[in-house]
Amino acid sequence: MKLRYSVVILLILALLFCGCTQTPNTQPTQTKVVRIYGSGATFPQPQVEKWISLYEKVNPNVKIEYVGKGSGGGQNDFKEGLVDFAMSDPPVKENLWKELEKKGQPLQFPIIIGAVVVVYNVPGVDNLRLDGKTLADIFMGKIEYWDDPAIKALNPNANLPHEKIIVVHRSDSSGTTKIFTTYLCLVSKEFEEKVGSGKLVNWPVDKVGRGLGGKGNAGVVAILKKTEYSIAYTELAYALKENLKMVALKNKAGNFVIANETTIKSAVSAVKAYIPSPEEGYKENIRQFLNAEGENSYPIVAFSHALIWKSYPKEKAKAIKDFFTWVLTEGQKPENIVEGYVGLPKDVAEIGLKAVQSIEGV
Q1: CA 246 to chain centre
Q2: What is the secondary structure of 161-190 as a DSSP string?
Q3: CB 3.0-4.6 Å disulfide test: which of 74, 75, 94, 101 passes with 282?
Q4: Are strands 85-88 and 34-40 parallel, antiparallel or unpaired?
Q5: Model confidence, pTM
């Protein structure tokens, strides 16, 4: 008997040591990846892409895709349910807001501050000053040559050539265009009457053969760089990235200023009281944000906005809530801001944070 028990014990030990016994599956269960889709403005695209890259490193189970196609394209995608969020420079208009409300509660709030700058490619001219009226006349096609008396009066020491001005503008539905044309309407009654403001406008320079259209901010910059004697408008970050020459614009106080962090913050401090509740985002009037008061204020400063829903399916709700909470807190820190943009003041970020915290899972 003792021998039999000994044999049994030895067999059990052998099985244990050779690993032939079944052990529980200790492999960790895979965490489900949540995918979020967004589209819209190219104005904030470099900043949005940086935020996504940084966020995904600390939250690898959330994958976010953003396609820059213009504010109009993003608003339409959002309305059609093709994306979970959109980025738009101008606020959503009331008629679209009412359409969105039939599907749920939309929320819109500032996400980053940028500036629309005027850039140019004129060999031998490294500094250029323009006031609003002269700029509007250039983009209307009224001023044809670089050595026009109106430009010379503002730049008496510049070596302005007798070359035709080529005007580069956006060809797609663009929040950048909406902001820029709204500014031109503010400083020129003639521009407002003949051209007006919008994400798409009919540029008079196209009819006289001196206008060129580019898709997105990147497209405009590409055309400007290869076209001598051209002028264009684009977002500050693109101008800095491509090392473009920027126009010093005359502000409301009568000073010529270049867009930078100081001049942008000066403008924001003068206009932040005009930001509406995120649940009534359509009430924002971008005219109130342009040509701001202040000695150092840059005149074409604008918020880029996030457009989201108040409710999503549960898993997506948590992911979107966490992402935009991070964007409005960690994402606003200087080390996480792309050159050419300015982070939101804390009290402005709080407007969006309160909206994001109200997101519900259904």
Answers
A1: 19
A2: -S-BPEEEEE-S--HHHHHHHHHHHHH-HH
A3: 94
A4: parallel
A5: 0.81
